Amino acid sequence: MTRRLIGRSCAFALVALTLHAVVSIAADLPRVRLVATGGTISNRAGSRLTADELLLAVPSLSRYVRAEAEQFANVASSQVTLDQWLQLARHINDLYQKDPALSGIVVTSGTDTLEELAYFLDLTVRDVRPVVVVGSMRNPSTLGYEGAANLLEGFRVAAEPAARNKGVLVVLNDEINSAREVTKTDALRLHTFQSRGYGVLGVVDPDRVVFYRDVVKRHTAKSEFDLAGVTTLPRVDIILVYQGATSDLVKCAADAGAKGIVLAAAGAGATAPGQSEGIDYAASKGVFIVTTTRTGSGRIAADRAQPASMAAEDAPAAVLQRRQRNSSSIAGEDLTPLKARVLLMVALTKTQDPATIQRFFTEY
Ligand code: DGL
Q: Does the pLDDT of residue 304 top 80, yes or no?
């Protein structure tokens, strides 16, 4: 009888010890918070997955992190408004400010406009801790739904100390891309998110998260953009350059109240002859004109990058065109038209000085 009692107490002690070990290991895991906004990753037929249901879809999450979740929105990415962008950036800044023990934040988004939201957060969240944006191409009701895998990888990256100080990261399909560089390149394929010539920042492998390079442009904690006091983002439109394009769309944007126009120009910055009058009209109304390339990669150099002594006959036509326009002409550097629009909107909340805005385009 006594021996049986001793045996039982030993068993209890063992269970208690094991439980204690499990609880303390769990307590040591990084805390990562999901802020869900919707998108295909939650777009289950019938009813969308909630933030909590998203966590339940990834049972192995508890091996890596202590996960928590909140619902910010539950809509397609194209339905998220610019006011919600402001609210989301403020909310993430608040979460980090009030919770020094929080290790990382994962944001789910629809993939269609994910790259725009991600770059906005890259410019406006001011913390070294990771913000990882995750989505999926297949919805939860589809065979081969990859959302749960992407979410797990997003959480693993958000919990990874090496992911700090790298700006906002986009994680899908086992790859980590910089929010500044990544673009959705395919309407349907799983490998749609690409950083083109720059390549991935790192990968999420079964054994560990691996980074291969850093982000040298300014972002997050080194950003000078402060949303305190910003109630609305200024209107900035994108106008595509193509053969035979005319001036009316540019004029219309200016008349409709655009504070900036991003030209998705041909090649290294050429516009259609028919657009010149409209661009000059917009510039004369004080609208900032940012030239980017529609090619998908490459750089539009700031005029000051051209030797001042460069003879007119040696300067590229696009540079001459911009020199002739007033000082509100900005070179978009290597930003795609979509990213340049995001930067210009954010820039215009801070300054109206063209030289400062040009500096932003070289530094961010
Ligand atoms: N394609 C999805 C997006 O980018 C939309 C799907 C949905 O959530 O309704 O948001």
A: no
